[in-house]
Automatic annotation (TrEMBL), chain A:
Residues 1-23 are annotated as: Disordered. It comes from Pseudosulfitobacter pseudonitzschiae. GO terms for molecular function: iron ion binding; oxidoreductase activity. InterPro entries: Ald_Oxase/Xan_DH_a/b, Ald_Oxase/Xan_DH_a/b_sf, Ald_Oxase/xanthine_DH-like, AldOxase/xan_DH_MoCoBD1, AldOxase/xan_DH_MoCoBD2, AldOxase/xan_DH_Mopterin-bd_sf. Residues 29-140 form the Aldehyde oxidase/xanthine dehydrogenase a/b hammerhead domain. This is Dehydrogenase. SUPFAM superfamilies: CO dehydrogenase molybdoprotein N-domain-like, Molybdenum cofactor-binding domain.
TrEMBL record, chain B:
SMART domains: CO_deh_flav_C. The keyword Flavoprotein applies. The keyword Flavoprotein applies. This is Molybdopterin dehydrogenase. It comes from the Bacteria. Residues 1-221 form the FAD-binding PCMH-type domain. InterPro entries: CO_DH_flav_C, CO_DH_flav_C_dom_sf, Diverse_Substr_Oxidored, FAD-bd_PCMH, FAD-bd_PCMH-like_sf, FAD-bd_PCMH_sub1, FAD-bd_PCMH_sub2, Mopterin_DH_FAD-bd. Keywords: FAD, Flavoprotein. GO terms for molecular function: FAD binding; oxidoreductase activity.
Length: 748, 351
């Protein structure tokens, strides 16, 4: 039998291929077990009662009625809640919020847990929670941005963003030949992953087993360990499949802590799953913002200043300020720039990171303001952006690690057919008489990296096992990370077993900041490389190996063989190298992350350009986005199919931001009145037509070893502004808040 | 949710016999079950009508009228070729409602019994006279957008959210109901009650009465060539109407012989104004005429300042629906039924 290698196999041949999801079949056939699919023996169901007012205190709970309901086993209130070992106001990890866990009877926001009911069935616990019929002492609520005093804060840490400043901002204003001073508002939005937050908690002595969707397994374990006074390694967290996270599943919530507490108290497994309505409560949200943008240009339409002030809501008891103004940091070459933030405390739950935190809401305002500035300067919006293109990072002059934004503009504009767009609004009608408008926006998302570890185990048959506690929220990590892992050893995808989503594995880091593929992927790649290094050292030092005497650096791996690069007839199978050395396996470890010195040398961002066409009924003012073209440069694309899916999902979210999503509060109680999918709208299929994604080639030798920038969030960025600008172009109406609705466009 | 008895009668007689005060009839459950989960509906007994065999028929009579069984699903009725041909705007309204999954479950009688979507009705802890007589109305001074512009009372500002009922009102459907005392027919115009001092009385059904069928007359089919439903909303599909209108015309030699116009989402029942319809008679279709008719149809409308735009939008919706009807019923239902963007998606749209 011939040992000839298949010629089409190249090193790195998995990366770049549109592999379908490895977990797809399990998901569509229902075999995949999500957290709440676990039903251990003896399970109790937990349901929490949410406050229906936003500010005051709970004056009465009808505990007796709840306890009397058949099937209810326990009612936990602030009066009888067992003690927690960690202070719920403490911040044990990098991603921690002060947690509402029944520490007192104060109500700080509507939807806050005020009691936990346990029952033998979900129905019993649910009815028990309803029977509590809470009564309140109600204080006046503050739920709108003007309801409380805006104030500054000292930046620092998670949730309190610093700003940026360079150049002489006042001079930038003073020298401007033309300027605009506009204010934009964005609505509060709530993460609504298809899978709501859930947990199944089981204690075994002082060891805790959790099934829970988590974007940050090790961080979550550390947080729970803190609350319950046990070592983090005593917490096992399984999170193999997650039905969407969007930032809300990085941080453990109060009800999940309470479920663990209930399991310890009852010594039985406890399951808790949020209802859809409960998703508008203790699981974070994107805080509403008001952003003032003052832009100026000189006689030549060069930006003299970008002055971006963000005001964002946060809760009365913790800080998460939507870092909207930071969207202006790195994008345009302005003579002077200032990005600053203030907060206003409202009777709402603490906001949190929600897909593209800051970038989404900041870009919505910035990109519309850029269009207003372009209009004032009498320029085409794209031409104006190109005219103010930043060749180096504004303020620092640092080079970009790579920046194919110019190519994004060019390819996106060509595909969309931007050329010939009338400068003035209200110029285009389609064959049906619908007002038609075109708008565009630039997208930028930074390329942070967290830290991750991975382990590779080469097996005697030449296949390999890769392990890291990485997270697949639905974005495709099971597939993409396995592609990277396979490439690191020159194996095909089916020669690699990939394990993730379990806290006992090497720390896979956090699935956030669009950094997971780069970070966990980097760790996997390094782990595979570590195995190759060891294999090479064995082979090249072994006189019986065809590779004897070759330098380790001249070896390549392909299809289970180690080969000499310049003479591929000198090669040896992984399995044979292992066997002759008497080894049953070989283990390599790898780390993913970015060295601080590398971070300092370059500015690192993904970029994109989004072009939108909208149609507006001239009488009824109903809006429809009929075309969206997004061109993105995001470094090395590991899997084009899943990348396209991520970017499309982001752009649809952008449509959602621009036209649909908004939590509406009752002004008296502070309750969110549209807290379900009948009232809180996201786009449906009929809202999405003509959606197109282009990925622009980009080699980035600096961002990380694999050249990966991340595609998880950038799709939203730019899209919101593009749609807002297209609506202006169609109607001549500049609506300075999102979402934009019929009512806004009807106004004279 | 609260515990309840659940019974599955096999015949109408069994069903009527199993009724008791505090019981609810269950059709597709697409509204009732949600309200039970919210604690807004708390029936002691749920009487499931799905096992009664003779409620699911669509029957055309010799004279061209049609009888639609109470348990016919919205999807089956909308997709019934003969029905859609004779009553196209009813089919269009049905297909503009909810989603495919819900239309498969929802029944025509259930649609007539659909409760308001007012956020304050749907929240157990909010004051609502409709849910708890005498409790007050938290919606009245709120920002609620699903608010009646016409026919509201100090006690209640709720709207009827149905699409289906709007063309039924325009076509003067009859509701066949049965109780222990026998069968009777209720004109659709008298079926839904305006709130007045008793918003808790939502329909003309007596205690224990059950909808058996709907009837559309042969006369109603005479509008088939000029009949449209138009539904305006911020989301293209799967959303209740912001405003809606069903417009139907009989035309002879370019002149309107008879016109019908019913507005949706503006009152606790579909809104028809005879004076407005009368303006159409003997006229040629014309934008100015339709604007006058729309104005007359919305006569007396009131809204708080933040919703004044809705009166304007309702007028525009009515005028456009009339213009669409005048232009003629399309040979086949648009890809996006009842949408201002109706023709845009080609043959297939996911609504």
């Amino acid at each position: 039998m011939s040992d000839t290698l298949s010629p089409e196999i190249r090193f790195g041949s998995n990366s770049g291929q549109p592999a379908t999801r490895r977990d797809g079949l399990a998901k569509v056939t229902g075999v995949a077990t999500f957290a709440a699919d676990n039903t251990p023996e003896g399970l109790l169901h937990a349901v929490y009662a949410p406050a229906k007012i936003a500010r005051g205190r709970v004056s009465h709970l009808d505990v007796a009625a709840a306890e009397a309901h058949p099937g209810v086993t326990h009612v936990i209130t602030p009066q009888n809640r067992p003690e927690l070992q960690g202070d719920p106001s403490g911040k044990p990890t990098m991603f921690s919020f002060r947690t509402e866990v029944l520490q007192d009877d104060t109500v700080r926001y509507a939807g806050q847990p005020i009691a936990l009911v346990l029952g033998e069935t979900l129905e019993a616990a649910t009815e028990g929670a309803r029977l509590l019929a809470p009564q309140y002492e109600v204080d006046p609520v503050r739920v709108a941005l003007d309801d409380n005093t805006a104030r500054g804060f000292d930046p620092g840490g998670f949730g309190l963003p610093g700003g940026a400043s360079h150049g002489d901002v006042e001079a930038g204003h003073a020298v401007a030949a033309r300027s605009i001073d506009v204010s934009y508002e964005t609505a509060a939005q709530y993460h609504n992953a298809m899978e709501t937050h859930a947990i199944v908690a089981q204690w075994d002595g002082d060891r805790l087993m959790l099934d829970m969707p988590s974007q940050a397994l090790k961080v979550s374990c550390a947080g729970f360990a803190y609350f319950f006074g046990i070592p983090p390694e005593n917490v096992t967290l399984r999170s193999p499949y997650i039905g969407g996270g969007f930032g809300s599943k990085a941080i453990p919530t109060g009800p999940q802590v309470l479920a663990i507490l209930a399991a310890r108290m009852t010594q039985r497994p406890v399951k808790l799953m949020f209802t859809r309505q409960q998703m508008f409560g203790p699981a974070g949200h994107r805080g509403a913002t008001r952003q003032r943008l003052r832009l100026g240009v000189d006689e030549n339409a060069a930006l003299t200043v970008i002055d971006h002030e963000g005001l964002a809501e946060t809760s009365t008891f913790d800080d998460f300020v939507e870092p909207a103004a930071n969207a202006s940091h790195d994008l345009y070459a302005a003579g002077a720039l200032r990005a600053s933030h203030r907060l206003v405390r409202l009777d709402v739950g603490t906001p949190g990171p929600m897909r593209a935190p800051g970038e989404a809401s900041g870009s919505a305002a910035l990109e519309c303001a850029m269009d207003e500035m372009a209009e004032a300067a009498g320029m085409d919006p794209l031409e104006f952006r190109l005219h103010n293109y930043a060749e180096t990072q504004p303020g620092t002059g640092r080079p970009y690690s790579s920046k194919a934004l110019r190519e994004c503009y060019a390819e996106g504009a060509a595909r969309f057919g931007w050329e010939g767009r009338p400068l003035e609004p209200r110029q285009m009608r389609d064959a049906d008489g619908l007002m038609t408008g075109w708008g565009m926006g630039t997208a930028l998302f930074p390329c942070p990296m967290f830290a991750a570890e991975a382990r590779a185990t080469l097996r005697p048959d030449g296949t390999a096992l890769f392990e890291t506690s990485a997270v697949d929220m639905g974005q495709g990590a099971w597939t993409v990370l396995a592609q990277i892992a396979a490439d690191s050893l020159g194996l095909t995808l089916d020669q690699v077993e990939f394990r993730a989503g379990h806290s006992a594995l090497p720390d896979g880091g956090v699935a956030g900041g669009s950094a997971h593929t780069a970070t966990a992927g980097g760790a996997l790649h390094a782990a595979g490389g570590d195995v190759l290094r060891q294999l090479g050292e064995l082979a090249t030092a072994d006189p019986q190996s065809p590779l004897y005497g070759a330098g380790n650096s001249s070896l390549v791996a392909r299809h289970g063989w180690l080969l000499l690069e310049e003479d591929e007839s000198r090669r040896e199978r992984f399995a044979d190298i292992l066997a002759r050395a008497g080894k049953t396996e070989m283990i390599g470890t790898g780390h993913g992350g970015r060295a601080p010195e590398a971070a300092g040398r370059h500015a690192m961002n993904s970029h994109g350009a989004v072009f939108a066409e909208v149609k507006v009924d001239p009488d009824l003012r109903q809006v429809r986005v009929t075309r969206l073209v997004g061109a993105f440069a995001a470094g090395r694309i590991i899997n084009p199919r899943l990348t396209e899916s991520q970017l499309m999902g982001g752009m649809i979210w952008g449509t959602s931001f621009a036209l649909h999503e908004a939590a509406r509060h009752d002004r008296r109680s502070g309750r969110i009145v549209n807290a379900d999918f009948a009232g809180y709208h996201v786009p449906v299929n009929a809202d999405v037509s003509g959606l197109e994604v282009i990925t622009v080639h980009e080699d980035d030798p600096y961002v990380n070893a694999l050249g990966i920038k991340g595609v998880g969030e950038i799709g939203i960025v730019g899209t919101v502004g593009a749609i807002g600008n297209a609506i202006w172009h169609a109607t001549g109406k500049r609506v300075r808040h999102f979402p934009i609705r019929i009512a806004d466009l009807l106004a004279p | 949710m609260k515990q309840f008895d659940y019974v599955q009668p096999k015949t109408m007689d069994e069903a009527l016999a199993s009724w008791e005060p505090g019981a609810s009839w269950l059709g597709g459950g697409t509204n009732l079950v949600d309200l039970m989960k919210l604690g807004v509906a708390q029936p002691q007994r749920v009487i499931d009508l799905t096992r009664i065999s003779d409620l699911g028929e669509i029957t055309f009579q010799q004279n061209g009228s049609v009888r639609i069984g109470a348990m016919v699903s919205n999807a089956d009725l909308a997709r019934h070729a003969g029905f859609a041909q004779h009553f196209p705007m009813v089919a269009e309204a049905l297909l503009s409602g909810a989603s495919g999954q819900l239309r498969n479950m929802a029944t025509v009688a259930g649609n007539l019994m659909q409760r308001t979507r007012c956020a304050y009705f749907q929240e157990e802890t909010a004051a609502c006279n409709r849910r708890t007589p005498g409790a007050g109305c938290d919606a009245r001074d709120s920002d609620e957008e699903a608010r009646a512009l016409l026919g509201a009372s100090p006690a209640c500002v709720a709207t009827n959210p149905s699409d289906f009922c709007v063309p039924l009102a325009a076509l003067e459907a009859q509701v066949e109901v049965r109780g222990v005392n026998g069968t009777r027919q209720i004109p659709i115009a008298e079926f839904h009650l305006l709130p007045g001092d008793h918003p808790e009385r939502e329909t003309a059904l007596e205690q224990g009465e059950l909808i058996v069928a709907l009837h559309l007359s042969a006369e109603a089919a005479r509008f088939a060539r000029h009949a449209r439903y138009l539904k305006v909303r911020d989301r293209t599909s799967f959303a209740f109407a912001t405003t809606a209108a069903a417009a139907a015309l009989q035309m002879e030699d370019g002149i309107i012989v008879e016109g019908r116009l019913a507005l949706g989402a503006v009152a606790a029942r579909p809104w028809r104004v005879a004076e407005a319809e009368a303006l159409l008679v003997g006229q040629a279709p014309d934008a100015a005429l339709f604007a006058r008719v729309a104005e007359a149809a919305m006569a007396g409308a009131e809204a708080p300042v933040h919703l004044e735009w809705k009166i304007d939008l309702a007028r525009r919706t009515a005028a456009r629906a009339l213009a669409m009807a005048a232009a003629g019923t399309p040979a086949r239902l648009p890809a996006l039924p009842a949408s201002p963007f109706g023709q845009q998606n080609g043959d297939l749209a996911h609504v």
